[in-house]
Amino acid sequence: MARPTTLRGSKLLIMIGDGADPEVFAAPCALNTKAFNRSASTNDFNVADCSDPDAPVWTERAKGALSSGITGSGTLAKESIDLWEEFFEDVDSRNIRVVIDYAVGPRTYQGKYHMTTFNLTGEQDGLIQYEIELVSDGPVDVVTAP
Question: How much is the average pLDDT of 94-108?
């Protein structure tokens, strides 16, 4: 069996667009743990067997809607706090890129997201930690630009 080519967690980047033209994307400093999720909702339908109406019915499912979410956490960097605060307070969604950087070229997902959670925690003898959560606002596409 051939060994798989694995990727380090540092190769998963969450990049926030600045809204300029042309738009510049940057990965906030110290976002250490990142997760990118794509999901689909389904509608369930119970379909009876026409030749045996007393038989148990089978449930069929139709895919209804697609969605995406991003979560992350890390040690709060002074260089990123204004970006996070502005994003959280913004009523408009922002362009986000999720980049998986691998040897044959990156795979990039791009779409608009709202920031729904910005959580700060700290301990007396530690560093301030933060958690973020983003939810998609419309389609998230695979794009060729890194």
Answer: 87
Distance CA(47)–CA(84), nearest Å, equals 48
The runs of H, that is alpha helices, within 1-146 are 78-89
Tokens of 102: 């691998």
Question: Domain ranges in the chain?
Answer: 9-50+67-143
Q: Let me know how long the chain is.
A: 146
Peptide bond into 56 cis (omega under 30): no
Per DSSP, the three-state class of 89 is: helix
- Classify the C-alpha dihedral 141-38-135-17 as positive or negative: negative
pLDDT band at residue 145, thresholds of 50, 70 and 90? low
Any long-range contacts for 137-142 (C-beta under 8 Å, 24+ apart)?
Answer: 137/93, 137/111, 137/112, 137/113, 138/93, 138/111, 138/112, 139/66, 139/111, 140/38, 140/66, 140/68, 140/109, 140/110, 140/111, 141/109, 141/110, 141/111, 142/107, 142/108, 142/109
Q: Which residue has the tokens 């449930």?
A: 59
The top-level CATH class assigned to 9-50+67-143 is mainly beta
